[in-house]
Amino acid sequence: MQIGFLTIDWIDILDILLVAFLLYQVYKLIQGSIANKVFFGYIFIYAVYLVAKALGMELLSAILGQFMNVGVLALLIIFQQEIRRFLMMLGRSTSIRENTILKKFYTPKVAKESITSIQSILEATKVMATSHTGALIVIEREDDLKKFIESGDIIDAEISKRLILNIFHKNTPLHDGAIIIKDGRLAAARCMLPVSESGTISPALGFRHRAAFGMSEQTDAAIIVVSEEKGEISFINHGGIFRNMSVNDLEAKLTDYLLKV
Ligand SMILES: Nc1ncnc2c1ncn2[C@@H]1O[C@H](COP(=O)(O)OP(=O)(O)OP(=O)(O)O)[C@@H](O)[C@H]1O
After folding, report:
1. 3.40.1700.10, 1.10.10.60, 3.30.70.1560, 3.30.1330.30: which CATH number matches 112-259?
2. Strand 222-226 to strand 233-237: parallel, antiparallel, or no bridges (unpaired)?
């Protein structure tokens, strides 16, 4: 096919479509994050570079060419988190859980143990919501939370309503940060979670919620947040946030999510 001075064959069309698809996926991945602006800046410079090259502007294309070469390295550093998220997304979508045939033969490993501890978690959540006690509870599913557990104080105790209430009680040494539940046991308290940089999170939500979002971006954990300010219960997972939940709604969501293959 001839368009003006350009000769285009079907490989070129396929090439353009694949690049467009790839760029769209990258855009979706970084949408709302700070990296978004860097991405468009980079695309703009690349477009100028291509035009300068096509017009034979040697000096400008040489300078921009050098910038593009170093830029790839810079992009790897700037987009660290997004690249990690992208690879995790790929890893997850090729895992047994996402495979409809293998799924039939597979039972989630954490489900049974975690389900038995749900009642204590729900009862404690109810009390904390009523008393406006801030809390952040992370329940491990398939993704290993070892590195987050190690960021806090190891407890490794049987879960009980009283233990949870005691940990989150204001003015106690362990109340800051998150508790992590693993295999039906309270693994650790005072855990540090990654804070999300997403620009789509409501500005009304503070760091406790941002940390829950950050965790849900990097892992498949189930996360419960009790807001200190409003006494509101939220459930967060990598599917999004469910705000202002009743304890019954939370029970249904949590059971469903923990048992989901
Ligand atoms: N990265 C983090 N990892 C774990 N816990 C965190 C992190 N950042 C903040 N927190 C917890 O959140 C508390 C601060 O919450 P902040 O008031 O900013 O959040 P919020 O989302 O507005 O919630 P609230 O409605 O309870 O005020 C801290 O005291 C700490 O316990």
Report:
1. 3.40.1700.10
2. antiparallel
